[in-house]
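tool_call: predict_structure(chain=1)
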Amino acid sequence: MISLQIEKIKKICLATILSAMMLLISHDALARSRMAKAEVHSVKGVPCFTISEKEERRNGQPYLGALIVSDLTDKPVSEVWGFLMTGGKKVLLTSKSCLLYGNLPSGASGLPAPALKTGHVYEVFLNGRPKDGSDPTYGYAGKFCVADSMNGMQKIIPVTREMQEWIDETCPVSSPSK
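tool_result:
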């Protein structure tokens, strides 16, 4: 009777240890993937999406298969514009180049881009990764909002991870250097 109880305790202990090990292994695997930072800047009042020089030095130039811009202001969140590369093609992105909102790269499939709304916060997701398959990066994300400027053109304001507006998903009244 006592030997049966000891065997039962051993099995419970072994199951607990195996479960803990599986949890640690799966947690470690999740920790190896990462979402890198996409940069957003303005080209004549239109958002343009890229990666930073620091990101390029760290992991090289990514090959993108898709891009999605979502409106975070309206709930539920909705996709505004994007494209998907077709035929196995990819877009090479460097820190010196950018993908202009509304422009479809050669070999991409997408819909026309609607006008962006003043005061709305948008998120861009660049679906791609560096050429090195061992790199943990699986995409690039950034946020921005649109404000009116003095000259009547739209002003693109990047919303960085260091800003409270990133968390609140709100548009800062002035530029990020406030």
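agent: The chain is about 25% helix and 40% strand. Proceeding to next step.
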